[in-house]
Amino acid sequence: xxxxxxxxxxxxxxxxxxxxxxxxxxxxxxxxxxxxxxxxxxxxxxxxxxxxxxxxxxxxxxxxxxxxxxxxxxxxxxxxxxxxxxxxxxxxxxxxxxxxxxxxxxxxxxxxxxxxxxxxxxxxxxxxxxxxxxxxxxxxxxxxxxxxxxxxxxxxxxxxxxxxxxxxxxxxxxxxxxxxxxxxxxxxxxxxxxxxxxxxxxxxxxxxxxxxxxxxxxxxxxxxxxxxxxxxxxxxxxxxxxxxxxxxxxxxxxxxxxxxxxxxxxxxxxxxxxxxx
Amino acid sequence: xxxxxxxxxxxxxxxxxxxxxxxxxxxxxxxxxxxxxxxxxxxxxxxxxxxxxxxxxxxxxxxxxxxxxxxxxxxxxxxxxxxxxxxxxxxxxxxxxxxxxxxxxxxxxxxxxxxxxxxxxxxxxxxxxxxxxxxxxxxxxxxxxxxxxxxxxxxxxxxxxxxxxxxxxxxxxxxxxxxxxxxxxxxxxxxxxxxxxxxxxxxxxxxxxxxxxxxxxxxxxxxxxxxxxxxxxxxxxxxxxxxxxxxxxxxxxx
Lengths: 277, 254
Fold this sequence. Notes:
Chain A is α/β, with parallel strands linked by helices. Helices cover 41% and strands 18% of the residues of chain A.
């Protein structure tokens, strides 16, 4: 299996509200992230738009339906369909989430948490190997935001992810907001989490907003908060050779607002880089 | 507990708050489960609202959400794509609104417009292609000619003015008379990148059904002629064919 070279840059997620901006302007981003499933269709405007965008910007693909933690294995038809899109787009990389989405044919369409057990690690690794084999390339997997942990857990999330990378050769998409949300909800140290992530496997970072309720909810509907910026700065001191992206999925503002937020990320990264140096 | 057992138990918890918690799953875990449970319902209902926004507007929040939950219980999401949860929703509405046929037909129109939007790209024969492709046709070729239609074409019989209702809702105009005087057919297809629809006249509806079933152009002319003038039938068939070509409905002539 080949490796994924480091790509340092700042990007945004492609959302239909911004199609015209990306097509008609020279938007100052280094890459665009697409939700893979939005373009796993037979034809029509979504694919035509994607082709036009791809001609202007480097693209990474981010999926939500692989269900890499499924105890019943992966959906081969899904993988083959994803491979078609990968061949069409030639993305910098392909990512999905460390989660499962359903069982016995019932898909929750949610990113459900996996228990951090040895059986779970074995299953996840076997699934990753199959996915990477079919796609013909290593993948990135994103740490989830979670609202529960299991009594059966025998290792931390970062230990699980580090072991997963070493066994399969996959890489990590580190979602800083998810680290913050899960750390707050489950009472672990976000700094310890970042320190436990093997630097050499991180290729991309996500930043997003969350909502404060009884517990924190990963809503992606507001700007990145100060606490997450602080954690990002800590991360930048360790993960210097990565791509950074702002995720926004709800209450989507004008593109220029997101570009302003992305400029903040550039500043934080530049500052953290100087501090680290 | 095996991974599979855990996943089955957790999914059962998402689907119902009546399922007893496993003894080792404490109240803290239950709080997290409630988040996933609420998110499951909210996400799927929101997705159906987005897919069927005119149906939602037509029957109102309460009725729509109840129908959506009913649909999701009868048809749990099974596909990797969220788009598929709308499959069969018009049938669900038909069972819940048996005296309001426009509800089911409007939902079918919304669902089918989305299918057409993402249907496979197949170039349609254009008005300039057609004379070239048929330049050498003799009478026998015309009689034997068969048509293949673009994948974005869908057709169904209708009893209501669901298309007019769609347009009225889109343009915020007065609601039309809902029931048609005569049953008709509705076609949905994609013209370029844009899905569209129109109601077919009786002859054209029969013609489309015949040609989709693989009948020949000659058989179509015979059907249209009936006991009447064959030349008139040929002219009618030609007119229908011309409209289909102009609208980009025909992918291939065979």
